Amino acid sequence: MDREEIREAVLAIIADIAPDEDFDSLKDDEPLRDQLGLDSMDFLDIVMELRKQHKVEVPEDDYKELISLTSTVNYLEGKM
Amino acid sequence: MIVVGSGLGGLTCANRLAKFGRKVLLVEQHFELGGLAAYFRRKGHIFDVSLHGFPYGMVKTCRKYWTKEIADAIVQIKRIIFDNPQFKIETTFDTEDFTRKLIKDFGVARETTEEFFRFCAGMNFYDDQTTTTREMFERFFPGRSDVVRFLMEPITYANGSTLDEPAITYGIVFSNFMSKGVFTVEGGTDWLIDKMREELERNGCDIMVRATAEKILCENGRVAAVRINGKAVQTKSVVSNGNLPRTVFELIGAENLPADFAQPSAQVRLSTSNCQVFLGIREGETIPDIGDLIFHSTAPEFAPDLYMGKPPVSRSFSIYYPKTRPGVDRYAIVSSLGARYEDWDGLSPEEYKRDKQMLIDNTLDVLESYLPDIRSKVDYAEAATPKTFERYTGHQRGATFGTKFEGLKMSENLPKALGGMFHTGSAAIIMSGWLGAANYGVIVGNNVEQYLDKA
């Protein structure tokens, strides 16, 4: 996947997890949790869905890489 | 695979795995599913043990991992009341109302309040674990025992935590509640558990009640079978939803575990237990709306140790009005108190009975300040103690919120110590309560999936 495809795939996962959130004003470089009201379980759901849908394992030490959409894409580039 | 124990963690884990097409057998030693998400019927009353209340996150969890029908039955309880020598406050228990009250009633600066909420909301369970809740409060609200009480008292009741736990255990639970307030299931615990059973059966999960998992049988460092009611049932993987030390030292047994796992595991501290007093209001009688959840205390300041005492100085009241079960026009009151196992263990039958009656009388005395004629309306009163919890759940020392924080590492590392063996259920405070338990069931279900995929 290229960066844009990864971005879309991550957004699709988040849209399932937080169906009530508005994605139009989402800023790629700012923390996802602050912008979308995601709690710690929603965040774990993202990790679980990445594994299920895209076979990417994110070890606990790397969770911090998933802070914003941009950092998530950086981390996942080359992995899916 | 086999799930041992049907608390909300075991149920949710079993459902997730069954939904993904795994062959799941759920075994429960009691005749009802639900673990401490329990209810019981006596003399025409239905009593809920733990229905009040949980954070909004449960709506999301039920929508994702159960059914829309269950998620849609989750409703807010709006009248939360604090009544103690330091303040008397009614709140909806959410960020907006708490911010307003901290500023207006407690005189805390707006910036401090907002920074505190941001600080808590940013916490993750894998973050810094060295700062204690006490240190965090001291940083934001130095010398303000009233503020600490306002912020901490309900959490102590919700999960038995003290000021000495890692601050993240407070921050995560508190911000979960603060997102939208306190919620419950309309229809009652019995409705919820029935609906969960239906969904499990739809997903093809086999369920056995009155079935005791006695021992995990191992071969070559892996789980091979579980002995259930005397009969070995083969399996690739087991999730125990039982009390953690009991899972490790009784169900599995230290002989089946490496010493470097078993030894530190023996040091894991259990959380404390509870007493509860169940009061049934006579059919046809009514009581006025005095609030849904009342935190009542006569202790001069917040001190979790005092909450465990005998006789008690602090307790919560859950008032269950007819709205709890639409169509059933009944009222019930359930009071919960912290309790120490040793205060109730080793008593003679007479002493035990006497102490239970003292607890009931003491509870009615306090209730009279809200409902002066309560004694004439109650036609059933019973008390549960740490011994009761021990008997019904098999939890060591009647622990109601699993283990202290170090239990989480033990729970998470169990699969590394014994192939195919997992634990879900109350651990480390954050993984307890209805929401914590259900979510931990999801996380462990995911780990089991991963394990079975590779196996």
CATH topological fold name of the domain at 2-37 and 189-269 and 401-454 in chain B:
FAD/NAD(P)-binding domain
Low-pLDDT stretches of chain B are none
- Counted by DSSP, the helix tally of chain A is 4
CATH superfamily of the domain at 2-37 and 189-269 and 401-454 in chain B: FAD/NAD(P)-binding domain
CATH topology of chain A: Non-ribosomal Peptide Synthetase Peptidyl Carrier Protein, Chain A
The count of domains of chain A is: 1
Supply the CATH architecture of chain A.
Orthogonal Bundle
Distance between the termini of chain A: 6 Å
How would you describe the overall organization of this protein?
- The complex is a heterodimer of chains A (80) and B (455).
- Chain A is mostly helical.
- Chain A has a single domain, classed as ACP-like (Non-ribosomal Peptide Synthetase Peptidyl Carrier Protein, Chain A, Orthogonal Bundle).
- Chain A is built from four helices and no strands.
- Chain A has helices at residues 3-17, 32-36, 40-54, 69-76.
- Chain B has 455 residues and is an alpha/beta fold.
- Among the domains of chain B are: 2-37 and 189-269 and 401-454, FAD/NAD(P)-binding domain (3-Layer(bba) Sandwich), CATH 3.50.50; 94-180, no CATH class.
- Chain B has 16 helices and 19 strands.
- Chain B has helices at 8-19, 57-65, 68-72, 95-104, 110-121, 133-140, 145-159, 167-180, 188-202, 244-252, 259-265, 349-367, 374-377, 386-393, 407-417, 433-454; strands spanning 2-4, 25-27, 39-42, 45-48, 74-77, 80-83, 88-91, 182-185, 206-208, 213-219, 222-228, 231-234, 238-240, 273-281, 293-297, 314-320, 332-339, 378-384, 421-423.
- In chain B, the strands form five sheets. In chain B, strands 7-6-15-16-17-14-18 form a seven-stranded mixed β-sheet, with helices on both faces. In chain B, strands 9-2-1-13-19 form a five-stranded parallel β-sheet. A three-stranded antiparallel β-sheet of chain B has the order 10-11-12.
- In chain B, strand 3 and strand 4 (45-48) form a beta hairpin.
- In chain B, helix 1 runs parallel beside helix 16, helix 2 (57-65) packs parallel to helix 16 (433-454) and helix 4 (95-104) runs antiparallel to helix 5.
- The mean pLDDT of chain B is 93.
